[in-house]
Amino acid sequence: MTQAPLPPELARMRGTDGVVQRVRLAAYAWCEQGGAVLLTRISVNGPGGGLWTLPGGGLDFGEDPVDGVVREVAEETGLDAVIGELLGVRSAVLEPAETISGHRVQTVGLLYRGRITGGELRNEADGSSDLAAWVPAAELEALPKIDLLRWALELVRGE
Fold first, then answer.
1. Which of 35, 25, 39, 67 is nearest to 152 (CA)?
2. Residue 4 falls within a domain, yes or no?
3. What is the pTM of this model?
């Protein structure tokens, strides 16, 4: 199958190996309550299916990161969050086999401390996650998780 030529603005985004390269900015929330951390499980329909992560995700163009993480927490968990301090910034490169698009993606993730103020915990319907849960902190290490959650655990624990 022959690929259609890319528009000029995307053609400039190709690496030396011909793979489209792009940057994805995302924001995530670390919310703790009663000795548990709010997590979401990635839907089995995509890369990383069945692994646990923090609520959050890609920002819309022009969206403030704090507004984006509040939106993502609500979409993925049904809960309302107030966002506090920026805990850290993480950059990682995902290879084409690790992405839905087949592109090489540099992900830049902003991790904020969040506090839940209301709402009803529920699972995301037809989204990138299929389960939302408060997971006891003592069980976090044993969970199957993505690198972002591993990084967040180290950051929050001061390791």
1. 39
2. no
3. 0.86
d(CA 105, CA 95) in angstroms, rounded, equals: 7
Positive/negative CA dihedral, 88, 40, 47, 6:
negative
- Does the residue 7 lie in any domain? no
- Domains in the chain: how many in total? 1
pLDDT digits (tens, 9 = 90+) for 27-40: 999 999 999 999 99
Question: Which CATH number does the domain housing residue 136 bear?
Answer: 3.90.79.10
| 130: in domain | yes
35 occurs within a structural domain: yes
67-72, Cβ contacts within 8 angstroms, sequence gap of 24 or more: 68/26, 68/27, 69/27, 69/28, 69/29, 69/110, 69/112, 69/114, 72/27, 72/28, 72/29
